[in-house]
Amino acid sequence: MRKLSLVGFVRIWLAIATVVASLSAALAQDRPRVVAVNQALQSFAEQLLGDAADVVFLVPEGVDPSFWRPSIADISAVQSADLILLNGAGFATWVDRVSLPRSRVVNTSKSIEDQFIYTETITHSHGDGGEHSHEGVASYTWLDPMLAIAQAEAIAAAVIARDLAPAEDVETRLDRLRSDLTDLDKTSQDALSGLEGVAIIATHPRYQYFARRYGLMIASLEWDAGATPSAEDLADLKAHLAQNDARVLLWEAHPSQEATALTEALGLNNVVFEPWASAGSQNSFIEAYKRAVLELSEAARQSSN
Amino acid sequence: MKRHLLTVSLITLIAAPFAAAAHQLVVFASVDCAAVTVEAKFSNGRVTQQGEVRVLDGENNLLTTLELESDGTVLVPLDSVDHSGGLLIEVDTGSHDNYWIVTPEDIARKCGS
């Protein structure tokens, strides 16, 4: 048998690599594409679909997906998706400003509309989204793990109905996700029990469903995520503190050193609880949630002693 | 103090559906092969009788500016603008503003291509 020269070997290796790369690219192109309007839904869809589809969350890091203003190209990308996962509950105002293909749109909170929390109207301005209102319905439904299960079930049903992945696989993954979220709920119940009367303040109105699920009293400010509080913000906080002696301040992202110092000087214990709407979370939804709950529990118990 | 917070929470949960009535500007645009019809009204049903309509392309370049008619609508003839990259329609009444996005696919779909 003839020996294979080094050049021949490299040629063959390159040919194989080219074929594999082409096949991978073709398979990736052939995979269904799912668009989600927040990171929590993206995470649930990824867990349910596995490698069967690409799950896309288009909102850039640092932009509030509730008030994201998409480009025309972004909407073209959404319109061409095989499945479009909406959160409902008024989340993502852009969905009412574009034409979406109804047959491919799923409102994941449709089955839990009777559990929506209605909120006050507050108009304000921050970030790129211009002046906007938090009004009507609290949007962060998935922060109640039981509601998150309902949303995951809606995604699974849509995936199966559209044959985007084998039904058996999706159902097995749904069982796992349901179990993880039920465990998370149990952990949260255990960690937060007895804190019903402890006053907590959040820097932004995100935690209504979380508070209701665990019987917590969380008042909300309207601070800009990630920004150092202004003098007006601090005056607002002091007004809240004058009404209740809250000692825990919930942040949706890590506060700056200056913000930490300013709030600690007011006797507040800062806790970060990523609501998993925006891009950029490092841990899984379950891990981030669990960690936040345990930190909140510890901070609240310290302050109530 | 606790009672106060609880009261605030209860008011928020129970009475808030009635507080959600603050009106917003609602903008809608429909496309046929000849024009984009822009409609603007307030969420309380009131017709928007005047307002500036800005038409931008996919790169946010201003293509044209029009005024709303007294019935809250305006037509943007497609042959008056370069719509190949889609159109962003902004309506500004001075006190309220909102937008609608028309993609190239929206236009192509209506033109049967």
Q: What is the strand and helix layout of this fold?
A:
The complex is a heterodimer of chains A (305) and B (113).
Chain A: H1 6-30, E1 33-36, H2 39-49, E2 54-56, H3 72-79, E3 83-86, E4 105-107, E5 118-125, E6 131-137, H4 145-161, H5 167-192, E7 199-202, H6 208-214, E8 217-220, H7 231-243, E9 248-251, H8 257-264, E10 269-272, H9 285-304
Chain B: H1 2-19, E1 25-31, E2 35-42, E3 52-56, E4 62-67, E5 73-77, E6 87-92, E7 97-102, H2 104-110
Antiparallel strand pairs in B: 1-2, 2-5, 3-4, 3-6, 6-7
Describe it for me?
The complex is a heterodimer of chains A (305) and B (113). Chain A is α/β, with parallel strands linked by helices and 305 residues long. Chain A contains nine helices and ten strands. Chain A has a four-stranded parallel β-sheet with strand order 2-1-3-4, covered by helices on one side. In chain A, strands 8-7-9-10 form a four-stranded parallel β-sheet, with helices on both faces. A two-stranded antiparallel sheet of chain A has the order 5-6. The termini of chain A are far apart. The relative contact order of chain A is 0.12. With 113 residues, chain B is of the alpha+beta class. Chain B has one domain: Sandwich (Immunoglobulin-like), CATH 2.60.40.1930. Chain B is 22% helix and 38% strand. Chain B has two helices and seven strands. In chain B, the strands form two sheets. Chain B has a four-stranded antiparallel β-sheet. Chain B has a three-stranded antiparallel β-sheet with strand order 1-2-5.
Short descriptors:
heterodimer, A: 305 residues, alpha/beta, Rossmann fold, 4-stranded parallel β-sheet, 10 strands, B: 113 residues, alpha+beta, Immunoglobulin-like, 4-stranded antiparallel β-sheet, 3-stranded antiparallel β-sheet, globular, disordered N terminus
